[in-house]
Amino acid sequence: MDLDCVLSHARAYLAQVDLAGVPGWRAGAPFAIRPLAQGEYNLNYRIRQDGREWVFRVNVDTQIDRDDQIRYEYRALKLLEPTGLTPRPFYVDDEPGLAVAGDHLGVMVMEYLPGRPLDYRRDLTAAARLFARIHSQPVAEAENHLIREERPLSMTYAECSRLLPVYLESELADPALRDYLRQVVAWADEARHRESSFLEDPWPCIINTEVNSGNFIVHRAQGTIHLVDWEKPLWGDPSQDISHFRVPTTTLWKTDYRMGGPDRRAFMEAYRAALPDPHLRDTIEERARLRDPFNCLRGISWSAMAWVTYQTGDHLLQNEDTFRKVSEYLDLDFVRGLFDPYMNAA
Prior knowledge:
Shape: globular
CATH architecture of the largest domain: Alpha-Beta Complex
Number of strands: 9
Oligomer: single chain
CATH superfamily of the largest domain: Aminoglycoside phosphotransferase (APH), C-terminal lobe
Radius of gyration: 20 Å
Number of domains: 2
Distance between the termini: 46 Å
CATH class of the largest domain: Alpha Beta
CATH topology of the largest domain: Aminoglycoside 3'-phosphotransferase, Chain: A, domain 2
Strand content: 5-15%
Strand order of the largest sheet: 1-2-3-5-4
């Protein structure tokens, strides 16, 4: 993708579109726009006009197989707006034929939040409290648009089963890793039947599902923390976010941090202390424990898929840091270190 061309189209789009719903925007007044951050499925730009700033988000692909990807995210942010812990969305456009980034799936303007990514060594308590507040946000189940997480472990297993064949069937795959991953998949197929506890004791809420450190914005001087990337939220069990936040495939994604026992206990204690619901306080550790190996498998499956598609040219947005990290994740010793404890215990 020609990123200079996308930026040019984004500038032209913002100059002509009606942004009357964006607080402080002055139609026709000069503005500046520059790249802010690039993900795997979105391009983000920082807009500045008369001292005010916003984020312009261009969606170029979807993880949830929906044509309304950007509107899905916008509506999730509207549900979360009362928490004050997510960026406020101001404008969304997903009309067919919108010419900003070729075959993109829409654009959104939202609040710009200054700060830095989460530091696991300093911000665990703040993150735990954020999760507790978001997971406790009252939302009418019948009135929200979110995809339902009907069978948690089976849903993650199915996602991995769609991703992993890209690697397992590739000529680029390492034979030893391929064989081991097939063993892991067979173990997970059997282990997913333990999800009966989720079905017998559901606790649905809004979950983010992708909570690596780069998706948090922390401003210590202001004492604020926000979770900013909501492209794949679900209506599901809060254990997904808690487990995903603490497993190695998440903590090592942008950092060199691996959550040890003391930090893990401190994080869980802070989360439980901030929860208003006593039943969730009593059951969250077991819920999250069941999900840990599945979240590790999800991380490895996506990494394996990306490692192949980066090299075959099938990945629309490419990031050198991402390719370097997924290559590290496909080291056989690293993968065995993730799954051997679970498989040997079985």
